[in-house]
Every structure is written in C-alpha cells, then in structure tokens.
Design brief:
The chain has 370 residues and is α/β, with parallel strands linked by helices. Helices cover 44% and strands 14% of the residues. The strands form two sheets. Strands 1-2-6-5-4-3-7-8-9 form a nine-stranded mixed β-sheet, sandwiched between helices. β5, α9 and β6 form a beta-alpha-beta unit. The longest helix is centred in the middle third of the chain and has 16 residues. It is elongated.
Length: 370
C-alpha cells in the first residue's frame, strides 16, 4: 500500500469520520498525512467537532499504522479510496459515499450491469425457490448479483449466482476478517474468488447493529436496481429499497402470500409503486437491459420438480384457472402458486390475468377474462 493510502487507513479506524469529514480535512490540510499529525487546535479549526477531534487523537495514539497496513497485506485485503481509479463509479454519486472500501476480489466494468437481491432471513419455501430460479436466470444473462451475506434470501442469492457461474458481490457490516454470520465463511471465500467482498469497515471491526443500515446504502448504490424477495414490514431489505428509491434506482418486489408476515413488506412496496416481478423479463425491462449475446439464446427452462411437471401437464391443452389446477392435481394451493411463479420466471408459463395461466411454447390462445 502506498504512503498516501496509509493515512486513509488511519482515518478509517476513527468512528464518525466518513467522506464528508475526509473532504473537510483535505480542504483544510491539503493531505491526510498533515491532518493525521495535526494538533487538537488545528483539527478544531478545520471544522472537527470536539467528539470527532477526541476520536481522532485517541485512535492516533493507539493505532500502529505500519501494523495495520501489514495486517491488510497478510489478509489479502485491498484498500480502495474515494480518489482511487479502482473505486466503483456508481458509489461516487450516492449521498455520503464511503471514503474507504476494503476489498477482497475486484470490481470490474461488467459489474455496472448489476442488481441487488435482498430479503428476509426467515425465507419460506416459496421465497427460496423464487430466489434460486430468478437469480440463476439473471446471472446466466450476465448480471452481477449484489447482496449482504446475511442468512436467508441474501445467502441464497449469492449461492445461486455462484452456482450459475456468475459474479456476485457481498457488502458486509463488519471487517472482512469478521465474517457474519460465521456459517457463511465458506460462502464468503467463494465470493472472494468469483466476485468481491466489500466493506467500509477496517479489519477487526466487529458487526454491530448500526453498521447494517449503513451497509445497505452501499448495496443499493452499487446496483442498477433492487429486488426484494420476502420482507416483513420493518426489515433491512426495505431499508435497502428505500435507499435505492432515494438514489433514483428501480425497485422490484416479488408478490407474496398475503397471509405471511414476510410478504407484507414486499406487497406494500408494490402498493407504493415498486415494480412487481411476474417473470424474469420484468427485471430486464425495468433496468433497460437485454440478454447478452452469449446468453440471448438461452432456452426456456423446463420443469425442475414433480410439482412443476404436474402443472405443465395440466396446462397442456388449454389455459386454466388456479382453482382448476387445484382440482386437476390435488396439490396444495400454496405449492401451486410457488410452482407457477417459478415456471413463469423460467418462461414456461404465462399469467393471463384473473389467476388464469397458459403454457408457453405453443400457439398463443386469446383468452378473455370477464
């Protein structure tokens, strides 16, 4: 790490010193080296409040910069500053961009075509199936999948992208050596090899509750749009969606069972104007993206389990209402709804309105719903 970055590293350890105060320090002192060595009086003159000044002086007296720099090198973590050409361009345009990013892996040009996928930690079977199917389809079309490494939807989204051979980025609410949750260490290692791990927190910083809402602004800032799959009315996923809306990004939500708590947030988002995802093309259309040349000819996905096979067989001859499918298959309505959602995302089935569905791959049938 160059001499110049050493002092960015120092200030990254100071609580409350982000991009706004870094700019104040640069304006006042010209370099962060001079700011790091400044007296209390000079720091106060530069606009630092008493608490921030105390924090700077306390960290400066206790932090061994050479040791902190060696720790980064030993862990294989790169420090990318707001002034570095490696800093992700989309992040520069959000409110309060992180002054420093600690990175394992890399941000590449193709990552600009990305979408964040977030949701509840208590994913239902429906949420898991939709996440895996949707993310696989998006990753196969060249989109980078961004999420927060949390349990539930986040972790499933990362794994689905990796399994599809795609790129994925995880943004952490802790130092990159403090993987949280601990059971996602193997996932984090895989992401570092096939994408990137990002954090604005230096190594050694433990996960804390207030880190995660701050982390969510970075998830939204990196992505072209945010997809919410299952979320309660008060959840981190909705905070991420809020950041995306404030940043002028597209917000998508997967409709859910109105009787489930984890569907209330997503259904509310749709009520408030988020784009409902009924098929994978809804995401591509909303982001004004098209399939990459390498994947433009991807075939329509066939059934992936016995339930989907039964439903496709029931739709062989003509469109059918969901109640008719229930009568024909004897399957629980919730299972039918989940399977139809996945078949629709895969391009095998089309919703005609009024809970009527048609199998695709045949001549379209005009169907009028009274």
């Amino acid at each position: 790490m160059g001499e110049r970055n050493t002092y960015w590293l120092g200030f990254s350890h100071v609580p409350g010193v982000g991009s706004v105060r870094i700019k104040q320090l640069l304006d006042a002192f010209g370099t962060l080296e001079l700011a790091w060595k400044a007296t209390r009086t000079d720091l106060r003159r530069a606009g630092m409040g008493p608490k921030t000044t105390d924090s700077i002086l306390r960290v400066r007296s206790s932090l061994d910069l050479d040791r902190a720099q060696s720790k980064l090198e030993r862990l294989g973590i790169e420090l990318v500053t707001l002034l570095s050409p490696k800093y992700p361009e989309p992040l520069k345009h959000i409110t309060s961009p992180p002054a420093c990013l600690f990175v394992k892996g890399s941000w590449v040009q193709d990552d600009r075509e990305s979408v964040a996928v977030v949701g509840t930690r208590q994913a239902s079977k429906y949420g898991k199936l939709v996440t895996e199917s949707l993310v696989q389809s998006l990753a196969e079309r060249g989109l980078t999948i961004i999420s927060g490494l949390a349990k539930g939807i986040d972790g499933l989204a990362h794994w689905a992208a990796l399994n599809a051979g795609g790129r994925t980025i995880a943004v952490l609410g802790s130092g990159l050596d403090e993987i949280y949750p601990a059971e996602h260490r193997r996932l984090a290692n895989s992401i570092g090899e096939q994408g990137a791990l990002f954090s604005e927190y230096p190594p050694g910083r433990r996960p804390e509750g207030h880190h995660f809402p701050a982390r969510n602004r970075i998830i939204a800032g990196l992505a072209k749009g945010v997809i919410v799959i299952e979320a309660a009315e008060r959840s981190g996923a909705l905070i991420t969606a809020g950041f995306a809306a404030d940043q002028g990004k597209e917000v998508f939500a997967v409709p859910g069972d109105v009787t489930r708590k984890t569907s209330r947030g997503t259904n509310r988002l749709i009520q408030d104007g988020a784009t409902p995802i009924l098929q994978m093309d809804d995401v591509l259309d909303g982001l004004h993206l098209f399939a990459s040349p390498a994947t433009a000819g991807v075939a329509v996905k066939g059934p992936e389990d016995a339930t989907q096979t039964q439903i496709l067989k029931a739709l062989e001859n003509e469109p059918a209402h969901i109640d008719t499918l229930y009568q024909m298959t004897g399957l629980p309505i919730q299972e039918i709804q989940a399977a139809l959602a996945l078949l629709e995302l895969g391009g095998s089935v089309k919703h005609l309105g009024g809970m009527h569905y048609q199998r695709l791959g045949e001549e379209p049938i005009e169907y009028i719903v009274d």
